[in-house]
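Section 3.1: Structural characterization of target chains.
Under the original work plan, the team committed to producing a structural model for every single-chain target entering the pipeline before any wet-lab resources were allocated. The record below documents one such target. The sequence was received from the expression subgroup and is listed exactly as submitted; it comprises 428 residues.
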Amino acid sequence: MTIVRPFRGVRYDPARVDLSRVIVPPYDVVAADERAAFFDADPHNAIRFELTRDVADEAAADYGWIRETFDAWLREGVLLRDEKPAYYVMGQRYEAPSGETLERVGFFGELALEDYETRVVRPHERTLAGPKADRLKLLRAAEANLSSVFLLYEDREDELGALLARALEEAAIGRAEHAGVEYRLARLDEPSAVARIRDFLDARPTVIADGHHRYETALEYRRERRAAAAGSDPDAPWESTIAYFANAWAPGSLLLPIHRVVRDGRMPDEAGWRAALPGWRIERLADVGLDEVEGLLARTLAPLAGQAAFVAEARGGPTLLLRREAPLGDELMVRVLEREVLGPVFGLDPEAIRGGAVHFPKSARRAGQAVRDGEGRVALYLNPLTPDDVFRVTAQGEVMPQKSTFFYPKIPTGMVFRDHRPLRGARV
């Protein structure tokens, strides 16, 4: 179902640059005040393929410098183009919120584009028009896939795990460290291994974890190029894009919760909670310091995975564990929270939530800090969703509710690029 091919990657020459200094987070997580630091970190930093230095310049940017820069770095040897197509295996070693060291091992490949209607590549969230228009300008100018879509596949028995791990040990071509994550990159072009990966993915759909805007931009670019060519050519470079694939069930594929911080609305006391949530068990917890929040959740909330449960920490009020003993089943806790808590308890409707009454921190520490700093009134801590949740919802043709889960770590830009110009005829 999912067609993923090896490709002739363009990548930094590790003899010319320090990979740690040139990789950059995805464009949509680089804050406006962080851009200059990446530009200044190294003259060859990949931020130049993603963003303008100044946010104010973005609207008028035509991104024409990207192709010029890309070609110049190829001529100068800063970038090199591999002679043989390959999958590019990447390992990301990091420390989980629990303190455990994990490594996610996946691979970059050339993904044949499919419309969502085919249910082969499945989205898990909705997108916005603005970012897609900007990324389309960039893709037209670059004629290259410079940042990757991130896809999850189902491999409950980890059938590809040993093959990918072996490639990292035997065929490494680069190492980097950035923001607490250690990276390893390797080429995998052994024919039997390539065939095994292709056949495995060909039998399975995939779910977009990150990069919905980039994927939909690639679809629009394909539509434009097909119209200009008065037809489709399956070997044309715009018929595919670059994607990173990871097993959603592997231990290193971390799905973190996105918590909620209520900024506006009613402020219930403990009696108010009980009145608004009949049928829920409510237990008062000991107040803890910010450094102890993760531990509190691990002790009290994590054992209740599979139930409707959350922890509420109010500024100047009690910390409460709230739960229903009935299993969640196919229900998602983020939906329960919006339907039964944010509305009935705080008086917030969906419009108020979208309007900023609720903030969505991507760590418990940030949620707790917001309450302690007075930026929010109540932190609502959640358990993470599971791979089963994500694949079940998307298999039904649905998308997840807003801010449901945080796939960690992110896929950086700069590990490997895919140039459209030399790809014609380079299939294997």
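Residues 4-254+408-419 form one domain.
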